[in-house]
Amino acid sequence: MAQRFGGKFSPDGKSETPADVPNAYTGKKRTRVGGRVNLLFFAPFPLAIRAFWSEPVGLALNLTAFGLLILAAWLTREGMLAHEAYDARRVAKRPAIPRKIFASILTGWGLGLAGFSGLDTLLTPIIFATVGTALHMFAFGIDPLTNKGMEDVDTFQQDRVARAVGDAEKHVVAMNDAIKRLGDRALERRVDRFSETARKMFRTIEDDPRDLTAARKYLSVYLKGARDATIKFSDLYPRKRDGEIRTEYETLLTDLEDNFAAKTEKMLLDDRSDMDIEIKVLRDRLQREGLKTD
């Protein structure tokens, strides 16, 4: 179905969204998981081709090397994604599995087996394995090995927040998946805008786990209701293109977005109040000690 695209540079000169509303790319950064990582999945295929032109031992070695390199490529991609998620948060745990380090080791093993195939000396495969491991670590780095911003954080509370945010993120992803079935770009952008508002609340709670109790209803009840409403809307709207139904759904998204934004702002104000109290207490103590605080 053809769609009309608008914007300030279109002939009518009108924009579909107000100027003060951030677009879907506001605050986002370009991912580092791109061509370099995808190339790792194609590089081992010559080994698979060479395997079927070798004797049985060479066949086994080449296919094993191919499997190790494909596994290393997958671990590299997952490690890069985990590293980006770690960098995006001010408070984060180190990845439970050092995927990029394991990928470097598997790359060395795979290249070592490939170099050993058809040779009687061990020097060549050892060189391949050593150089391959070193080059992989140099190209993609290693995984974060320490927690970030968790010096004074209660780990029990942080685990509770991680579970709650993880469940809430599933609701948001389900909303986006459901609305994409309609193929309506305007609705996709509208749901994506609400998703960014909800994720801003997620990041605020992760930074201060004490906010979880006050926001639990938003993470569970409200988001689950929004998910269910989106799924029902995406099932009903294609059968009956009723403008009233669409208006009601967009109004629901607006109400949810306003309430999520207001709650997030309130949590930030509470955090500011806590900081002001700490500053005041410290200044009063300095004054009692006879120190100048101006």
Automatic annotation (TrEMBL):
Q: Does the keyword Transmembrane apply?
A: yes
Taxonomic superkingdom? Bacteria
Q: Does the keyword Membrane apply?
A: yes
Bilayer-crossing residues are 37-53, 59-76, 97-116, 122-142
Q: Which UniProt keywords apply?
A: Membrane, Transmembrane, Transmembrane helix
Task: Supply the InterPro entries for this chain.
Answer: ChloroindolylP_hydrolase (IPR018770)
Q: Where is this region: Disordered?
A: 1-23
Where does this protein have coiled-coil stretches? none
The record's section on Pfam families has:
Halogen_Hydrol (PF10112)
The protein's name is 5-bromo-4-chloroindolyl phosphate hydrolysis family protein
Which species does this protein come from? Parasulfitobacter algicola
Taxonomic lineage: Bacteria, Pseudomonadati, Pseudomonadota, Alphaproteobacteria, Rhodobacterales
